[in-house]
Write a structure and sequence with these properties.
CATH topology of chain B: Rossmann fold
Distance between the termini of chain B: 39 Å
Low-confidence stretches of chain B: none
CATH class of chain B: Alpha Beta
Number of helices of chain B: 13
Largest sheet of chain B: 8 strands, mixed
Number of domains of chain B: 1
CATH architecture of chain B: 3-Layer(aba) Sandwich
Order of helices and strands of chain A: EEEHEEHEHHHEHEHEEHHEEH
Radius of gyration of chain A: 21 Å
Number of strands of chain A: 12
Order of helices and strands of chain B: EEEHEEEHEHHHHHEHEHEEHHHEEH
Strand order of the largest sheet of chain A: 6-7-8-3-9-10-12-11
Shape of chain A: globular
Strand content of chain B: 15-25%
CATH topology of chain A: Rossmann fold
Low-confidence stretches of chain A: none
CATH superfamily of chain B: P-loop containing nucleotide triphosphate hydrolases
Number of helices of chain A: 10
Strand content of chain A: 15-25%
Oligomer: heterodimer
Distance between the termini of chain A: 30 Å
Radius of gyration of chain B: 22 Å
Helix content of chain A: 25-40%
Mean pLDDT of chain A: 86
Chain lengths: 333, 341
């Protein structure tokens, strides 16, 4: 937690679960616990990284911050307003200042809409703009994202992947939101286009002071663009806090493994690899105790018994791992 | 001896909208026991190259021309489909990107691996009594070999997994099954086409470790096809960088990472995020890939290249061979290197 600063988004002990379709009738209802007891804060103007492997609840957590996903328990605040206590009408009003860009620009743009129709749709939903005003706004927005105003009447199929993602960004920014969720914005694109889109997002952030929630599985990208990060595994927070502190001193074995899974391109700079055993377990029957049990290279007997609490080990650096206290004790004694 | 030698491979797809020149005359040489990586973005022709080497492209529609196609010194250029079937799986095999579509969904994975042993008759078993017995025993032998192969790729409870269907396995597990299949008959050359793109990062690291370990242990040659330069470093001995159907740079892995010569390679390496980077903007390659039907004139990379000159706009540079065996397709690479110093 940062002192003297008010968070834009605040989550308090948020949990989300989904019912699983029964294999047999009259079976006891089972649930996938997608997000379990997550608390976090996102501060205005920052890029907040959300890291984890597929199925760990990243996207669900992002949806809860937008008020799209109902929560089982816990509270979500957006600038002092409690999203979880709002009715539909209030939510719609609050959502004006929150937007999202999606992973796959090929499926997130309607192929039968022209670029103008795609980008102006949020304006039409909000209402109160004339056609001329909308065309002007869309034209300006297209230039902001590196396309030209003349592209307005073309269709998504005329554009390459990177350009489509730019259209998606223009659509998200047309209402000048305060908060933008970027759900793996480059992983569907060609490698040579990644840098363009990431640079564009950073430029737009500087210009409009938007707060980003940046979902990614690539820790190297997160380190480069984010100021704070949350590492998730199986719906639980493993490590959370300031990017520089976490990368300088990754405490959780899962964070260490994720970092060593990024293949280094500096040929003389060999990191010691942390390799995980086993596979990602089934989300319906997560391991008892720490979620990371069974794959953790530094497992203790204790880990199988109870959930490690999330502890603040230094300012703005939280870790949920039993090993941390022990390592400290060893070095002290 | 070379595990693979390809000379002047060309693949063309005539379509209604125009002719797509997917691969425009490329040469590949892989020494026995080495790993060569072909790196490029989508549509650069890297997958088509691998399919052409396996002779798996259906002609028509594709038109394939090649001057020389030799596998371990044996010419396979003129083999027909039936003869190729005997080669595939035994001398050359392939690991595909998406294991779920590469495996038969209605057949246990064990049986699918058995098929390779049965088809290629690499079972050292002599029948003593009648024909019927021989077939049953062959199957038993195949099963034994399959379970060994599954254990080799790190699948626990191999006896149990033998009976599992593809959908019962996780993504990483399925990819291991594919690797087991590829290595089953201990082939000369394995082509791995984006073997880990569909996997999570920690699983990807596991699978690549297994692939590398098996390649070294069995002295197999590996042709790794990928768009991800960062996984190539720990895997490959030599790297071919492709752009729009042409090889733009060929170099030993170390040389390429230490001193990339082609502007495209520099751009690719510059745009990869590294762990020891400072926060800030990325080095970017402007514009996007040209359409394969409307490739630019001259050097295909010139509209995106910050070093382009008038000459680049008009003439395609040749693939120049340097003293140390390195190849580079660029008019200005010397000037660019000097400018960097």
């Amino acid at each position: 937690m940062r002192k003297n600063e008010k968070p834009l988004i605040k989550l308090e002990n948020v949990s989300v679960s989904f019912p699983v379709k029964n294999d047999f009738p009259f079976q006891k209802k089972r649930y996938v616990r997608a997000v379990t007891d997550v608390s976090m804060e996102i501060y205005p103007g920052e890029t907040f990284g959300l890291v984890g492997e597929s199925g760990c609840g990243k996207s669900t957590l992002a949806n809860t911050t937008l008020g799209i996903q109902k929560v089982d328990s816990g509270k979500i605040f957006f600038e002092d307003q409690e999203l979880t206590a709002m009715d539909k009408k209030q939510l719609k009003a609050a959502r004006r200042s929150m937007q999202m860009i999606f992973q796959d620009p090929f499926s997130s743009l309607n192929p039968r809409f022209s670029v103008y129709e795609i980008i102006s749709e949020p304006l039409r939903i909000v209402g109160g703009y004339t056609r001329e005003q909308m065309r002007e706004l869309v034209g300006n927005m297209l230039q902001e994202v590196g396309l030209s105003a003349g592209d307005m009447d073309r269709f998504p199929s005329d554009f390459s992947g990177g350009q489509k993602q730019r259209i998606g960004i223009a659509r998200a920014l047309i209402l000048k939101p305060k908060y933008l969720v970027c759900d793996e914005p480059v992983s569907a694109l060609d490698v040579s286009v990644h840098a363009q889109i990431l640079n564009l997002l950073m430029d737009l952030q500087d210009k409009y002071h938007i707060t980003y929630l940046f979902i990614s599985h690539n820790l190297a990208v997160v380190k480069r663009i984010c100021s704070r990060v949350l590492v998730m595994y199986f719906g639980k927070v493993m490590e959370y806090g300031d990017v520089d502190k976490i990368f300088a001193n990754p405490v959780h074995p899962y964070t260490q493994a994720l970092m060593s899974a990024i293949f280094d391109t500096d040929i003389d700079h060999k990191h010691e690899r942390v390799r995980l055993k086993g596979e990602v377990p089934s989300p319906i029957n997560p391991p008892i105790g720490c979620r990371f049990c069974g794959r953790c290279p530094q497992e203790l007997d204790r880990c199988k018994e109870g959930d490690p609490p999330l502890l603040e080990i230094e300012e703005d650096h939280y870790v949920a791992c039993f090993r941390h206290g022990i390592v400290e004790a060893e070095t002290d004694g | 001896m070379k595990a693979l030698e390809v000379k002047n491979l060309k693949v063309v797809f005539p379509t209604e909208a125009g002719i797509v020149r997917a691969v425009e005359g490329i040469d590949i040489e892989i020494e026995q026991g080495q790993c060569a990586a072909i790196v490029g973005e989508s549509g650069c022709g890297k997958s088509v190259t691998s399919l052409a080497v396996m002779k798996l492209l259906s002609t028509p529609p594709a038109i394939v021309r090649v001057d020389k196609l030799e596998l371990g010194g044996v010419d396979i250029k003129n083999l027909n489909d039936k003869q190729m079937q005997k080669v595939r799986g035994k001398d050359i095999s392939m690991v595909f990107q998406d294991a779920l579509t590469a495996l038969n969904p209605v057949m246990p994975i064990g049986k699918q691996i058995d098929e390779i042993f049965l088809a290629h008759g690499k079972l050292n078993f002599q029948a003593k009594e009648g024909e019927e017995n021989k077939r049953i025993n062959l199957k038993k032998e195949a099963k034994k070999r399959t379970i060994e192969a599954l254990k080799l790729v790190g699948i626990s409870d191999a006896e149990l997994r033998y009976r599992a269907y593809p959908h019962q396995l996780s993504g990483g597990m399925r990819q291991r099954v594919l690797i087991a299949m590829a290595f089953a008959c201990n082939p000369n050359l394995i082509i791995a086409d984006e073997p880990t793109t569909a996997l999570d990062v920690t699983i990807q690291a596991q699978v690549l470790d297994i692939l590398k370990e098996l390649q070294i242990k069995q002295k197999t040659s590996l042709m790794l096809i990928t768009h991800d330069l960062s996984i190539v470093m720990s895997m490959a001995d030599e790297i071919y960088v492709m752009y729009c159907g042409k090889i733009v740079e060929r170099a030993k892995t170390r040389d390429l990472f230490v001193q990339p010569l082609h502007p495209y390679t520099m751009g690719l390496l510059g745009s990869i995020a590294r762990l020891d980077d400072e926060r800030g903007r990325f080095v970017q390659i402007p514009l996007s890939l040209p359409s394969p039907m409307r490739k630019p004139s001259g050097c295909y990379f010139h509209p995106r290249c910050s070093f382009a000159t008038e000459k680049c706009k008009e003439d395609m540079p040749p693939l120049e061979k340097l003293d140390d065996g390195r190849c580079i397709r660029c008019w200005n690479y010397r000037e660019i290197q000097n400018a960097k110093k």
